[in-house]
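call fold(seq) -> tokens
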Amino acid sequence: MAMEMGSTGIAAATAGPDRGTTASATVDFQWKRPNATKWIAKIQTHSRIRAIGEVRDYLHSINAGILEDFSQSVFGPLLQLDMDSMLNRVVLHQVITRQITFDRMDLYEAWFQMGSQRLRWSKSEFCLTTGLKFGSSTFDPNAELHHPPNGVWMRVLNGQVIRAHDLYHRFVARDYNNDPIVALKMEMVIVAEVVLFRVDDKHIVRPWLWALVDDRQRWDTFPWGKFVFSATLHYLNAIVSPPPPPFEDPEWKKKFEYHFYGFLLAFQLWVYEALLELRRTFATRLNYENLLPRFRH
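ret:
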């Protein structure tokens, strides 16, 4: 699905009958950020979507076999993304400001009131959108880590921690000792860190990624959907509500800046799937077959 920037208001896009996953509109709710729509907000996003295309081009420059190996991995469906896809901060902000809470709401889902529609974003929608797996794994990121001495972390980085920004620029410099297998593993860590789990440039690359990437079978069977969705949902819920505006001067507005981390493209694509009129305004579907995951559109 190609995604376009735009500044059209959200009201027209959210009007009309219910679509997507909805709850009864009679359920009492509270706005999670009651003052957000009254402020001029600036949303900061940090996902490096273009890194997927750069990884594809780099692996192809090594040899077609290495690129095919990546395409057969758990991250293979990401190569189907339209590399011109863009995060639309207008859309993201308007949806975020309409997040709601209510009694007995599941902790592993988020709800939004979009006009007359009440929409749920949960692991089910995330899985259908991305194809990333949920479930259990024999690898526990929270357990004691064992990095093999001949593993990629020791061979390339000498076991030193590295920030996401530095890892990305090391990829740009192609500093992998001309070893195709090492390059493939590094690219997998880069996609996981700067696309799926993306925080900011100062964030330290997760140490458990280095322990996992040297075991291809466990890498491909790891429940990426569970961890990436949980992280993105956490970052969504962590967005604070701005303080009340000074109502004594209704013409005065203050700029409010906040950050949204995680796999934001998956969240945005779900929005386009759930709100037909919004999709018509901001996106163009490239494939009209009923394909899953939706990234293949």
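The chain has twelve helices and eight strands.
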